[in-house]
Write a structure and sequence with these properties.
The chain is mainly alpha-helical. It is 52% helix and 5% strand.
């Protein structure tokens, strides 16, 4: 993941089904691939000195990791970070629309403390 100058990135890694038990290869996955695609995968795996299975698993895990990071990491400029911290540290009073929404939720679902 490339870093952008002036941007601070915060990534939180938590224990989740996505990173637990990554060392145990007991689950199976199947996929259909066109013959030319399989030939390319075999060639690439051979170039790296890996089995097709190992190559495919590594490629799939890297693609999955990249997708998760892209969807879960929020990047803010320095000014946006400072504004975010200021708002979290000293939030503004709730507006009338928010108070009405809280009351409506309380009526429909139950307590919001």
């Amino acid at each position: 993941m490339a870093l952008t100058p002036g941007i601070i990135q915060v990534v939180l890694y938590v224990v989740s089904p996505y990173n637990m038990g990554m060392d145990k290869r007991t689950a199976r996955i199947e996929a259909r691939i066109a013959p030319l695609g399989l030939a390319m995968v075999r060639r690439a795996a051979e170039m790296e000195g890996r089995s097709v299975s190992d190559f495919m698993v590594a490629a799939a895990l890297e693609a999955a990791r990249k997708t998760v990071v892209e969807m879960e990491v929020i990047r803010l400029s320095r000014a946006s970070q400072e504004r975010f911290v200021a708002l979290v540290s000293d939030p503004p009073a709730p507006c009338d629309a928010l108070l009405r929404a809280i009351e409506r939720r309380r009526e429909l679902i139950g307590g919001v403390e």
